[in-house]
Amino acid sequence: MYLYDEIDQRLVDERVRQFRDQTQRFLSGSLSEDDFRPLRLQNGLYIQRHAPMLRVAIPYGMLATRQLRMLAHIARRFDRGSAHFSTRQNVQFNWPKLEDVPDILAHLASVQMHAIQTSGNCVRNVTTDHFAGVAPDEVVNPLVWAELLRQWSTFHPEFAYLPRKFKIAIVGADNDRAATLVHDIGIQAVRDASGDVGFRIAVGGGLGRTPIVGHVIREFLPWPHLLTYLDAILRVYNRFGRRDNKYKARIKILVKDRTPQGFRDEVEAEWAHLRDGPGTVPAAEIARIESRFPQPAYQVLPAIDAAHERTLTADRAYARWVSRNVHAHRVPGYVAVTLSLKQHGVAPGDASADQMDAVASLADEFGFGELRVSHEQNLVLPDVELRTLPTLWERARAHGLATPNAGLLTNIISCPGGDFCALANAVSIPVATAIQARFDDLDYLHDIGELDLNISGCMNSCGHHHVGHIGILGVDKGGDEWYQVSIGGRQGADAALGKVIGPSFARVQVPDVIEQLIQTYLARRDSEAERFVDVVHRIGVEPFKEAVYAGTH
Amino acid sequence: MPVLIKNRALQEDDWHVLAADVEEIPARGSVLVPLARWQILREAVPEGGRRIGVVLDTGDDPHVLAPDLHQLPVVAVHFPSFTDGRGYSIARLLRERHGYAGELRAVGDVLRDQLFLLARCGFDAFALRADQDPAAALAAFTDFSEAYQAAVDRGALFERRFRTEVVQ
Fold first, then answer.
1. For residue B32, what are the β-bridge partners?
2. Which CATH fold topology does A306-398 show?
3. Neighbour-count burial for A6-33, b at 16+ CB within 10 Å, e otherwise
4. Class of the CATH-defined domain A413-552
5. Size of interface A-B (CB pairs under 8 A)
6. What is the C-alpha separation between A163 and A246, in angstroms, rounded?
7. How far does B53 lie from chain A, in Å, by closest CA?
8. Nearest-CA distance from A1 to chain B in Å?
9. In whole angstroms, what is the distance from residue B150 CA to residue A313 CA?
10. Which of A57, A120, A371, B157 makes a 20 to 30 Å CA pair with A127?
11. CATH 3.90.480.20, applies to A6-109
């Protein structure tokens, strides 16, 4: 992770002091609820159904082990011993007391963490690829640029009160592992013909009530202009985005109203004034930020390890885990490993304080004391030596962190849902656990193959159901909880939004519906290589719809 | 007389905002008029006994005021709610694009906790909402001792970081 200098630290400390003062004024009655609400939201603090919820930023998903241990400590001291990793590389505490929040923020600041702009109508925590810096297919390391964006967006003077929340994702590889096209701004590093680095800029993507894939408004933006160009986009949005209706206030609505071409022209006209101005990034700043990321001391290792190969052949369970949870690394002899927070029977993304401490120990022992949080709500050890992989597997299994389901059906992405969230129409986690229980047979699960299943408890779409191969959305029907099912969504460079298959279902029906969809897929696929989502796109929604609703007519 | 924060100090405010439905502009004193009213008035240059400034609504286009800025002692931006952030962009456009050097005043739903960022965008005068304590609000200007971005009040932090390193 980026190591703060004295100024970065001072700003975070000053934020704690500011929020402590605001909280005291609120508790003493001199700051009204209406005046306090936007201030607390900009520190990630919601007042929820049961208790406040505090969302803490994990900038670009990168955590040092001392930070993870601090999260475990906070979970024990201020919460009920656990935390929830969200789909946006944040971590949420569901039971803090309002009066404790300034102290929690002070604890976070002591390990260079904060809750700045994790909610509110401002630029949110910037997200990126969970394999950033170690993926073999990278054009540039996006971590440096993500930190540049963190600093630029932190207390941005002009854009603290936007029409609506604003989410930016950046990737440095060809494979878009951060779903940039469903963000308000999606940034992808590219090289031009002469090899110079720049960015492809997409705007107006998003999920929520009006899901839409972003429009590329600039194919190649030379890197020094990144911040001034973002300023131009944000300024057009800040001035002209709708503020009369919160459901029409996201930038995607403005882009649609102006047409992507019209919006692009306005941004370019604004940028003409800002270009080469004081926000232009000097090369020395990029070098400075880069130098503050500790460089892992990789060893020279063979690309193949005999013990690993032996275990692969001898142990089917190990082979299964390797096939799903172990990922290629740019350095020979190293791999990246997904530690699953999707143990069957446990809410997706939930981790106990003990598990967090265990992961921290694993990250110290099997890496360089650093780990990543994925938008799929898992934790990633980025720098594991291949020769230690069988040992790591045993250790991870002992802690319930080796469920070999990364990318499979039971690797469910889910928001906290109606059990925790005041906005939700319906619960999500009991639905997730019911599906996991139905598909608990690992052989069957691996036979089904790659499948993203996403659950959102309401149209705010925190579970990203629109881009799930199967998406489940909680809806309210006359005060009852019902679930709408869509299929065919996918993320990545060919992002698509799922189509609703028909009328919604009661909660108890959901596992049966999923079973029907899976049966239809298995009957219709060409080969094991053809994924569920591929079959949906090849044969359309109808055959699935017929199978699911056949029994109900 | 109401209190105004100007250049981080308290002073009495002798300007008054002309209500939208008032037809007569007083012959004397200092008056802030809405943009539409100004566009009619501007032809007849204000005479000795009174001073005229303009209040922009957050939906107004600040560019239309550009030709007149040199003769306006005060431009105010009215915040209908402190969560309406358009005024921040208007302020930067007036200062940075059009070089406005007179008083730039935030009026309306202006609260203590927004002063730091408003000042960064070029506001130098603040008529706080009536329930606010202007003396206590002065502390807000030092909520933060540094800032990352280039804005009206200072350049980008990366420029200062390098300057410091060179000095060391």
1. B17, B53
2. Sulfite Reductase Hemoprotein; domain 2 (3.90.480)
3. ebbeebbbbbbebbebbbebbeeeebee
4. alpha beta
5. 92
6. 8
7. 23
8. 19
9. 58
10. B157
11. yes
Cβ–Cβ < 8 Å for A506, A524: no
Strand segments (E) across A65-181: 82-85, 90-93, 127-128, 168-171
Query: Residue B71's domain is classified under what CATH number?
Result: 3.40.50
Of B83, B149, B155, the CB nearest to A161: B83
Q: Is A10 on the interface with B (CB under 8 A)?
A: yes
Higher model confidence: residue A459 or residue A220?
A: A220
Cα distances from B24 to residues B20, B28, B41, in angstroms, run: 11, 12, 12
With an 8 Å Cβ cutoff, are B147 and A152 in contact? Answer: no
CA dist., res. B18 & res. B52, Å (int): 10
Distance from CA of A499 to the nearest CA of B (A): 36
When mean pLDDT is compared across A251-260, A290-299, A418-427, A534-543, the lowest value belongs to: A418-427
> Smallest CA–CA separation between B52 and chain A, in Å?
26
Phi, psi for residue A248 in degrees, rounded to 5 = -120, 20
Domain range for B99: 3-167
Min distance A68 CA to chain B CA atoms (Å): 27
Instruction: Give the model confidence (pLDDT) of A33-78 as tens digits.
Output: 999 999 999 999 998 666 789 999 999 999 999 999 999 999 999 9
pLDDT per residue over B3-30, tens digit each? Answer: 999 999 999 999 988 877 776 777 778 9
The answer to whether residues A422 and A48 touch, using CB atoms and an 8 Å cutoff, is yes
Contacts of A407 (CB under 8 A, 6+ apart): A324, A450, A451, A452
A158: nearest CA in chain B? B88
Using the beta-carbon criterion (under 8 Å), do B84 and A161 form an inter-chain contact? yes
Total number of domains in chain B: 1
Nearest-5° Cα angle at B21, B19 to B26:
60
Could you identify the residue written with the tokens 């969560």?
Answer: B83
In chain A, CATH 3.90.480.20 covers 6-109, 306-398
Q: Write b or e for each residue in A439-469: b if 16 or more Cβ atoms lie within 10 A of its Cβ, otherwise e.
A: beebeebbebbbbbbbbbbbbbbbbbbbbbb
A127-288: what fold? Sulfite Reductase Hemoprotein; domain 1 (3.30.413)
Q: What is the pLDDT of residues A220-259, one digit of tens each?
A: 999 999 999 999 999 999 999 999 998 899 999 999 999 9
Please check whether residue B150 touches A, CB under 8 A.
yes
- Interface membership of B92 toward A (CB under 8 Å): yes
What is the pLDDT confidence band of residue A327, given thresholds at 50, 70 and 90?
very high
A381 neighbors A64 (Cβ within 8 angstroms): no
Q: Check B88 against A161: CB less than 8 A apart.
A: yes
Listed in sequence order, the residues at least 6 apart from A462 whose beta carbon sits closer than 8 Å to its beta carbon are A86, A87, A415, A416, A421, A456
Per-residue pLDDT, A52: 86
Residue A272's closest chain B neighbor by CA?
A: B97
Nearest by CB: A38 against B83, B120, B143: B83
Average pLDDT, chain A: 93
pLDDT at B168: 45
